[in-house]
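Before the break, one more example. Copy the sequence into your notebook; we will annotate it together after we see the structure.
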Amino acid sequence: MPKLRGEAFWRETLRSAHYVVAPMVDQSELAWRLLSRRHGAQLCYTPMLHAQVFLRDANYRRENLYGEACPEDRPLIVQFCANDPEVFVQAALLAQDYCDAIDLNLGCPQMIAKRGHYGAFLQEEWDLLQRMILLANEKLSVPITCKIRVFPEIDKTVKYAQMLEKAGCQLLTVHGRTKEQKGPLAGVASWEHIQAVRKAVSIPVFANGNIQCLSDVEECIRKTGVHGVMSAEGNLHNPALFEGRNPLVWEMAEEYLEIVQKYPCPLSYVRAHLFKLWHHTLQVYQQLREELAKVKTLEGIVDVNRELKLRCQEEIANQREGEKPKEGLPFFHWICQPYIRPGPKERCKENGASGTEKGVRGKRALEEEEDGNSELLSKNKQKKKLRNPNKSFDPSLKPKYAKCDQCGNPKGNKCVFNMCRGCCKKRAFRETADCPGHGLLFKTKYEKSLSWQSSQRVIQNPEISRRGDVDVGEAAVLKEAGDG
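Here is what the structure looks like once it is written out:
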């Protein structure tokens, strides 16, 4: 059967999907995909998979795709991050029998993507991307799709999309933010960019960004003309988003936990989903937030979920007539609803004195009572602070390290070359030298090797040993070993 392309691929294979669950690292696993499909999602993506790891590690393949095969989980698109055409295609060939298309991630803006040189940090390397998509389009039995972020300039974004289409991309998802728009600086996604791309290409286009409820989905399709709309954050806070409902949080949480019993996944995934679903409630019940963070078993998470449900039901029973939601929320905190990510200024207010007066700790706030100042710490640092209250994160108190002469990383204190271990290893190998400080013994091992080779020659030819004769070649080798 010939491979379907473009509009035909979207209509027949993807069943004209309009409602799409985004690829989310550690969040769009099988259990969550099945929950989302029960509540209106028509197409799902796997979490982003690393092509290099997928290719070399059978356990990674089993845990992230092979072991999750489920007839109800279709249509499904598997997303990879990669920066090498051969590696990408070889990984995709191992995945193509378990999905309906392979997606190349060109949208991840996180620091890990910058270090690994993938995602949105490939968007300037058009020659490389063309080679990756051309090869995938030629070798795979399923279509190749791409998920991108926009450039600040609409014209450049349009040319970028046209280049991907020409290379063989059969469907394009456009996230209407630049790679710099993330976290507190995310801002509003540009539907204008998405509309321009939709008009400029002939392949199907999905929109991503600014989707908090079903009316946003309908408005986005109307304004941009896209074939479908993808949701990430909105879906995590309300998996019934595509049904146009705002159910009770515990209904969604209990249904998800039942699916997890049948299709297990790492406990960290389950915990993260409950933090999203119960986000607004956990701002009220801080003690239960801490319990959810510390619990070590699925049964423990079920117990915390049950306690949250009971607390909310007590609130409902004691509710006064005409009472309205607090904190400016559109619904009471026990109802699934969007989380509007605050901007930098709003976050400062949220984490400042006003939040403390209300007895609610901000999302990333930790009060430092000792010096009377409020220091904003990341979630990771907050956890470290809880484990060790005396720990300080003051940069001025950090120990100062001497830098490597080559790369600027901290050097080894006993390194003979005044370098970090990586640079020292390269130089010691190149010069056949030793560095006891880093435990590198290239010279010593080389001398031992020469000595052993010499002894083997003597054993194999006893005449040399009796005469004490050593030919010129062997003498030269031994002299070289001695000179080191």
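The mean pLDDT is 88. The first strand starts at residue 19 and ends at 21. Try to locate both features in your own notes.
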